[in-house]
Design goal:
Blueprint lengths: L7 E7 L3 H12 L1 H8 L2 E8 L13 E3 L2 H6 L5 E4 L5 H12 L3 E4 L2 H18 L3 E2 L10 H8 L5 E7 L2 H13 L3 H10 L8 H4 L2 H15 L9 E2 L7 H9 L2 E11 L4 E11 L11 E8 L3 E8 L3 H20 L28 E11 L4 H11 L4 E6 L7 E8 L2 E2 H12 L9 E5 L8
Parallel strand pairs: 1-2, 1-4, 2-3, 4-5, 5-6, 8-10, 10-17
Antiparallel strand pairs: 7-9, 7-11, 9-10, 11-12, 13-15, 13-16, 13-17, 14-15
Helix pairs in contact: 1-12, 2-12, 4-5, 5-10, 7-8, 13-14
The structure holds L-homoserine.
The site of L-homoserine has 8 residues, from helix 7.
Length: 442
């Protein structure tokens, strides 16, 4: 049988915001290299956008404002969804998959929250839903997990996966600034969203962690089971005390396979200063992955921005082009969204994890207060690793800072509730989890 080798892959881009425009520009600027590496020409034939950019679209044959019409158009081979959000983007992807088209998306919220349904549809239609750009911008972490590390049992992964949050914590550390001030700076520099809740409250990171954990452990996407805590309560004092104890404060997404189940959690974390992750600053992202044979591997780079994200979108397009040219039956890679037959691990509630903790306890500096705190911790069998008591500047509240040894979070919660009932405690206790990276982490 003679096989027809396509000379062109016809692309329709829905949404010409930062990522869509970056994708168009990259396909134009690196056209020769991309064609050589793809084995065929990748041509943007259609664009659907509510913000036309005629200067970018001079070589695009069809420009319009109806993404659903584009998604159903039989003359488009692959739909790139860079609209973002849930509603229209979901309909676009569903229409494209139903029409038998491959889809490339940067939409982490949609993949994390509605991916199970979309991947089931892609499987049914034997097409590919590609999403490299949805996690950590330009860092090829999806490929690393799915291809490069495919032979390993992934034991855990931990990453700085929100650039805005990392910028804020880095600035607070460098300049002793307050959270609210640095957030404003991040917005002025264009890093944070106008509504930065997704960034600073950990939702953006939880989307990315949900996707990575699904690949790493062969489990369905379970965003609703990912524990999510933001950085808005971290103070410059916490960062200083952590520094005194030998740690940096980072906003980490952590996924780990344990004997009792899978942990998926995003929260501020104390990371020893000697660790590589502790030294990733500014808007950068970095992800550490521990495989049973390979050991620990680190992936770092730009986690956001037009160029970096377009680099990942176009990598997916090149992959698709190579597969089409090779006459592959789709999908070549196992899709997300379903459980490996061999894996029935439940996702653990945060109360079920075992961790070490930093506690900042505001107290009236009175004789006997330390003994009372020790008794409460002893009642829950919590052992203290380090303690700092700051001198009282006046009769007012002073912080006692404690690092605990490993304990179940449910016990720590009981201890915190009992501590907050002591008459010497003057306010809420700050609790930050410590990540020692058991295994061979760098
Ligand atoms: N707002 C995200 C960040 C952009 O700051 O990392 C990419 O998801």
């Amino acid at each position: 049988m003679t096989q027809h080798t396509p000379t062109q892959l016809r692309i329709g881009i829905c949404g010409l915001g930062t990522v869509g425009a970056g994708t168009l520009r990259l396909l134009e600027e690196n056209k020769e290299t991309i064609t050589r590496r793809s084995g065929c020409e990748i041509v943007v034939t259609h664009v659907a956008t509510r913000t036309p950019k005629p200067e970018l679209c001079q070589n695009v044959a069809h420009s319009g404002d109806d993404p659903l019409a584009l998604a159903a158009d039989p003359s488009v081979d692959v739909v790139v969804e860079t609209i973002g959000g849930y509603d229209v983007a979901f309909d676009v992807i569903k229409t494209a998959l139903t029409s038998g088209k491959h889809v490339v998306t940067a939409n982490k919220a949609l993949i994390a929250e509605k991916g199970n349904e979309l991947f089931a549809l892609a499987r049914e239609k034997a097409v590919t839903l590609a999403f490299e750009s949805s996690v950590a911008g330009g860092i090829p972490i999806i490929k690393a997990l799915r291809e490069g590390l495919a032979a390993n049992e992934i034991e855990w992964l931990a990453g700085i996966i929100n650039g805005t949050g990392n910028f804020i914590l880095s600035e607070m550390t460098a300049n002793q600034s307050q959270f609210a001030d640095v957030l404003q700076e991040a917005q002025e520099l264009g890093y944070a969203e106008a509504d930065p809740t997704f960034d600073v409250e950990g939702i953006d990171a939880a989307h990315k962690l949900t996707i990575m954990a699904s690949i790493a452990f062969g489990i369905p996407l379970q965003f609703d089971k990912t524990y999510t805590e933001g950085i808005s309560k971290v103070t410059p004092d916490d960062i200083n005390y952590a520094n005194e104890l030998g740690y940096e404060v980072k906003h980490l997404g952590i996924a780990r396979k344990t004997e009792s189940g899978i942990e998926m959690r995003v929260h501020p974390t104390l990371v020893a200063k000697s660790r590589l992750l502790a030294n990733v600053n500014g808007v950068g992202n970095a992800i550490l992955v521990q495989g049973d044979f390979v050991g620990s591997t680190l992936y770092s780079g730009p986690g956001a921005g037009a160029e970096a994200t377009a680099s990942a979108v176009v990598a997916d397009l090149i992959d698709l082009a190579r597969q089409v040219v090779a006459g592959a039956t789709f999908p070549v890679y196992p899709a997300l969204g379903y459980r490996d037959a061999s894996n029935d691990s439940p996702v653990l509630a945060i109360e079920e994890i075992d961790a070490e903790y930093y506690l900042r306890i505001p107290v009236i500096d009175r004789v006997g207060v330390m003994a009372k705190i020790s008794n409460v911790l002893q009642d829950q069998e919590i052992s203290i690793e380090a303690i700092i008591q700051k001198e009282a500047a006046s009769n007012e509240s002073v912080p006692i800072v404690i690092l605990t040894h490993r304990v179940k979070e449910a016990k720590l919660n009981k201890a915190m509730a009992a501590l907050e009932n002591l008459e010497e405690i003057t306010g809420a206790i700050m609790r930050i989890r410590v990540e020692p990276f058991h295994g061979e982490a760098t």
